[in-house]
């Protein structure tokens, strides 16, 4: 089902730039088995990578398996960097980025959808609003925000449908599951959305539907 309306505009537009990013793997520090040679070598994962994306733009990071796409996403989001050494700079609106800033302004949609099968779409979003929003947020605002993202992502017709589990328990479609993942992140009105392979595992129709959602998010001023 296509989305039903224009996604609401972002409150704080953000542009991101990265300059001369170099990422090296750290030598293994684990226990060395007697029959294995110690490997002190470091792999140069990303070499002098630079780029820029403005608020309102949709950017796709493409490359073959092992090219470093996920590593670059991790650098931009400051996630999972304990096993690598990173050189270079990442800036938000021209200022050097730190973890707390990018965390407060961005959301990350995982490749794999993780849901409780026996609750409805609306119940899932209610739970997510309690987890993600500030404790001082009023119930009225939570309900308003939930209704807004349901409308924005075209999920209002399946709002009271059980989520289910693929090939196990009947529920919403694969495309609706992916849109629900995005809706969960949109609850907090992020300025930047990072999506890891958002069309993976979807047929061409559902993949096109998700890309329409991505374009709508960019049109709303998000990065």
From TrEMBL:
Keyword presence, Transmembrane: yes
Annotated ABC transporter domain residues: 31-223
Molecular function per GO: ATP binding; ATP hydrolysis activity; ATPase-coupled transmembrane transporter activity
Subcellular location(s) per record: Membrane
SUPFAM superfamilies per UniProt: P-loop containing nucleoside triphosphate hydrolases
InterPro entries: ABC_transporter-like_ATP-bd, ABC_transporter-like_CS, ABCG_transporters, P-loop_NTPase
Topology in the lipid bilayer: Multi-pass membrane protein
Record's GO cellular component terms: plasma membrane
Source organism superkingdom: Eukaryota
Gene3D superfamilies assigned: P-loop containing nucleotide triphosphate hydrolases
Keywords annotated in UniProt: Membrane, Transmembrane, Transmembrane helix, Transport
Family: Belongs to the ABC transporter superfamily. ABCG family. Eye pigment precursor importer (TC 3.A.1.204) subfamily.
Full protein name: ABC transporter domain-containing protein
